[in-house]
Task: structure prediction
Amino acid sequence: MKLNTFHGEVWINAHPEIMEDCLRANEEPVDGGYGNDGYSKRAKDLIGKYFDDEIFVTFAISGTAANVLALKSMTNRWSAILCASQAHLNVYEAGATEFSLGNKILSIDCPDGKLTPALIDRLLLTTKKYKYKPEVVAITNPTEYGTVYTNEEIKVICDHAHSLGLYVYLDGARIGNAVVALNTDLKEMIEKTDVDAFSFGGTKAGAMFGEMVVFRRKAFANYLEYACKQSFQHMSKSKFLGVQIVSVLERNFWIDDAIKSNAAAKYLEKKLVEKGVEIYYKVESNMVFCVVSPEKMKKICEKYDSHYWDEINHVVRFATTYLTTEKEIDDLVALF
Result:
């Protein structure tokens, strides 16, 4: 059986503590559903402590569902969404947003996976009256290339988008890795930059499943129950999602895991560089992209379930987790 060691966070088990918290929650009387249970309310209170302004929160089972639910609440049926061509919602979600919402995604290639005001302007040149109605700029932090938007870069994007009458949504499936990489916090990354809405990833922070969607504009939350129902995210036994987010926040898994996985990626980068391997994108989170020759790739694939991320340039992605050890990294690097 081939190893999935460097496939990333979805290829490891949930934190034992989170499983134990779920079992304890199962022994308690049910005190509500559909996001109105005690655990979901506590999760909302916990995320709210990071902000001064009022926020509006709902839950989704996965990162893809969180993106669809957020964008459903932020757009009209005729709206278009702007993003990097490499964005997860554009490439790795089977067209879920366009299929579920009927909205058009307009994308542009970004060399490091990051949008800029200049790239947004270039993308807007393709729009005309009755052709597309741009509504939301969607960014991901960290990006699909593992690069990280600084708070300053996010602020510039938000200011530019808002000046054009556009909203900004941040896909935060790995937001802990970005926060750790920048040595910042959610208030600085989201509220101070004026991001309109973001997702908070629980799945990649050790939960079995579960994400939060956080809105900073009440208008987006006016019909959340309807949006959740139409997006198949109106969960009756919602406490089992809520308790996991509570655990991720109270036990600080979203930060502690990111510290370890980011450090493991830097160690992997160091070892690969020592072997003369070309690093393709700057290593800023828990993802390392490097160039692997077909001969070396064949050898790697004999042991690991791996594939080219970019077949043309022979680029492979190795993602680390909080469980990745130096020995596992050394074993991989030995194959180069």
Observations:
- Residues 56 and 218 are 7 Å apart (CA to CA).
- The longest helix spans residues 253-274.
- Strands lie at 56-60, 79-84, 104-108, 133-140, 167-171, 197-201, 211-215, 287-291, 308-310, 315-319.
- The chain has two domains: 16-250, 253-333.
